[in-house]
Design brief:
This protein has 141 residues and is α/β, with parallel strands linked by helices. It has four helices and five strands; from the N terminus they run E-E-E-H-E-H-E-H-H.
């Protein structure tokens, strides 16, 4: 299995990759000017990496309820489903950006907001949590 992790944002879409080894790694974010171009960027990665599943961060409120942002992500998920014939999984993304920023600070680096690096690191946190929950890990041996 080959997973594409997504942290959706209106202007930047963070991306990450993971496979049966069970380790998520950041990819360059989709930061193109238009949504159409950002979706095309995602399509290129799906083709290049032979993605089998998409994992999208689903922004729940801290109390677990769905808010405005969750509805926005749901519309994006519908677009992905129409455009790419792949399973799309929703994963709780609460505090993923906070965790990604903390991890980045620990390395002594500072991400420039427009680069999408923080967004892709958040996508990596989301995908890693999903892989861990699904117990996707390397085969013994």
């Amino acid at each position: 299995m080959r997973f594409l992790g997504i942290d959706y944002g209106e202007k930047r879409i963070g991306l990450s990759y993971g496979d049966e080894l069970g380790l998520a790694v950041p990819l360059p974010a989709a930061v193109e000017k238009t949504k159409k171009e950002r979706v095309a960027h995602i399509g290129e990665i799906i083709g290049e990496r032979k993605i089998t599943d998409i994992v999208v961060g689903y922004p729940l409120n801290m109390d677990g309820s769905e808010g405005f942002k969750a509805r926005e992500v749901e519309a994006f998920v519908e677009l992905l489903v129409k455009r790419f014939p792949l399973p799309v999984h929703r994963a709780d993304e609460r505090l993923s950006t906070h965790q990604a920023a903390s991890d980045l600070r620990a390395t002594g680096k500072k991400a420039h907001r427009k680069s999408g690096e923080l967004d892709s690191r958040a996508a990596t946190v989301i995908l890693q949590d999903y892989l861990d929950e699904q117990q996707i890990s390397p085969p013994p041996g």
